[in-house]
Amino acid sequence: MAAVRDKSVVVTGAGGGIGAALARRFAAEGARVVVNDLDEARAKETAAEIGGLAVPGDASGIVPAAREALGGTIDVFCANAGVGTGGGPEAPEDAWELAWDVNVMAHVRAARELLPEWLERGAGRFVSTVSAAGLLTMVGAAPYSVTKHGAYAFAEWLSLTYRHRGIRVHAICPQGVRTDMLAATGAAGDLVLAPTAIEPAAVADALFAAMTEDRFLVLPHPEAADYYAARATDPDGWLTAMNRLQQKLEEREGDAR
């Protein structure tokens, strides 16, 4: 793909799952890729596989080190690292803070570092791995749902603010993807996500299709568009349907006990 060949790309949370699939695809298309992950060993493993550069550490502050590793320039930044915090208002304060910090503020901090250079040269691409939970919601996971809505809102804001200045933004909103995060969702994931789960490589395919079409919203599960439309046009009907899912979840959890 000409748009990324010889470009400098950073992918956070790329030790596995969607991040690793994105890193593989960018490398296969001829980009120079920095692989970031909190887990140093996994970051190095992915980097070695694709001929990339491992820059492990907290995604919130990775831009300066990644830029240096790439020789001074970042063309594409994939804000992919995320946490799937479950529970409701009763979830511990630190769980809410972690979800907010990783799922939203890491994106804000990266953009803060990247935008001055991108705006000066009139080019840059910001890819946000959001989740369909950012368009819709996820039963049993208030911190995840709320912060993914925040991630989507921030990506949307970046696009509407800077697209006329050469900045391209993409929000990836898959439903279930066969990753460690899906495996950790328990009964809620089994009920809502697992039946239509896809492989991480399919998410990378969807992103590259959106990049080719210069399209903001990336829907690896196309049916999410219909759910999103239903949520907007008939919120009470949509909430009623989601509440039925919540009741099914409670029944499953009750049976498990």
From TrEMBL:
Pfam families: adh_short (PF00106)
Annotated transmembrane regions: none
Keywords tagged on the record: Oxidoreductase
Gene Ontology MF terms in the entry: oxidoreductase activity
Family matches, as SUPFAM superfamilies: NAD(P)-binding Rossmann-fold domains
Cited InterPro entries: NAD(P)-bd_dom_sf (IPR036291), Sc_DH/Rdtase_CS (IPR020904), SDR_fam (IPR002347)
Alphabetized PANTHER family for the sequence: 5-KETO-D-GLUCONATE 5-REDUCTASE, ALCOHOL DEHYDROGENASE, PUTATIVE (AFU_ORTHOLOGUE AFUA_3G03445)-RELATED
Family: Belongs to the short-chain dehydrogenases/reductases (SDR) family.
Designated name of the protein: Dehydrogenase
